[in-house]
Specification:
alpha+beta; Helix Hairpins; Glucose Permease (Domain IIA); 2 domains; eight-stranded antiparallel beta sheet
Amino acid sequence: MRNLLRSLLVFCVGVVLVAAPAGAVGSKARPKRVSESDLQRRANKAAVGYSRAQAAVARLGNDIDRLEKEVAKLQVKMAPLRDAVTRRAVAVYQARQGIDAIAGLSTQPDFVQSARGARLVSHASAADLDVIEGLNAASAKIRDRQEAIADKRQDQEAAMTELDSERKVVELELAVMARARQDLQSRLVAAPRAARASRGEAGRREVPPPPALQSPEEAAAIPVATDLICPIAGPLAFTDSWGDPRGGGRRHKGTDLMNPFGTPNVAVVSGQIARHHSGAGGLSIYLYGDDGTTYYYAHLAEVVGADRRVAQGEVVAKTGNSGNARGGSPHTHFEIHPGGGGAVNPYPSVRAVCP
């Protein structure tokens, strides 16, 4: 209920900010616009909630995997114990009666205290008793872990619901930011067009952007730029999720830059880009920067252009949710590898250059 109310509140705010016309009927004053910085704070706050929910889902999944592995190991351990008890039961009761005596081992809360178990124990040696006790202990541990798995699965289902709710909040906040930027851009473009129209220049052809550099001479002409810029050219939200749990017992080794599907990703420095693909990262690129650092962009929807030398700020990809992010909120997983070595936490660098 809390998440539903939260989503509805954010939706209503978004509608007021985005959809309401500037001169609504019955209103003499223009509605107050929310500043870009306020929108950014709201989006980043939503990203924090999403990141926490994502970590909770991963943590529960890892717990379930661990418990299931423990059950499998205990079942392997039980096999020789069960065989030993079966052989002893056959020796005491002869054939079918002995097998019946151990038939309830998996369901009896305590085999030693059962009627059949008591009769077997009365004929058992000390070694036999150790085996029977070991079998009982293993059975009890399996039951405990199976109950824990059932509880964890319930918690995981609730966490998945929470994650989906937080995802919708983030995406709505980003949509509000994108619309606000579009409105601002439209006003900025409309003003000079109106001025040109007043001078009779409205039909002038816009200058097209220069073509992508392809030849070695043109590539060599790209200036070296090593001062980092933001990897995303559009609205985004992010938080420090370095080291958060991920599936398979992994830890998060980057910063997730959440932004609308198809948002341009740009080269943070000048350098050489190379396309890559993996099961986890999906469609991705490596940017071998002129500053000696390697940058990694993952979960992309599209790589723009061929492997090439790129200028700082050049569009190199578009945001998606490929790889193990499929079905989740679109985002770019961004990593920084100084000197091409191990990854370091990129959050401080991203925080310094992104809104």
